[in-house]
Structures are given as structure tokens and as C-alpha cells.
Amino acid sequence: GGGIYFATSAEATKTKAIGPDSHKGFLMEAQVDVGLVKYMPQTCDRSLNAERVLNEGYDSVSFNPGDGQEYIVYSSSRVLSVKQIPMV
Known about the structure:
globular, 32% strand
């Protein structure tokens, strides 16, 4: 669902967010306050959204779809800092 998605390493991003323009932008390193995390199984729950997660008392969601752990936050205020990492 709609949220801000994060991988746990630069290497992990190579198999995530695959689309026609993938790998043509830039890599960001972010410090994120994930708060209380709702851990989900590999299949996750595609009906999750900010309202539902927050109403259940969580601040973020985490799951591993098979290519590495992902964290999803639903508020940009949870992103504490961001810096661009040069693409090599």
C-alpha cells in the first residue's frame, strides 16, 4: 500500500522497485524512526494502509518478500535525515 519504503542496504535495492526507469536515478541513505514495527510474513497484507497500521498501534510495517527485509513508514516525519549516495 501507499507508504515510504526502505531497504536495509544499498545492495538490497537492486531487486526492489523494479520498473521501466529503475536504476536510472540515485540512491538515498536515510535515517528513519520506524517506531513500533508490525512484522508481517513474506506475503504481507496488501490491504494495509496508514490508517489501519496506526489504528492498530504501530508506526511502521516490515516484511521480507524474498529479496530482503523492507520497512514501510506512513509519515514523512519518520524520515529523520536523507543524503544522496553517488551511483557507481
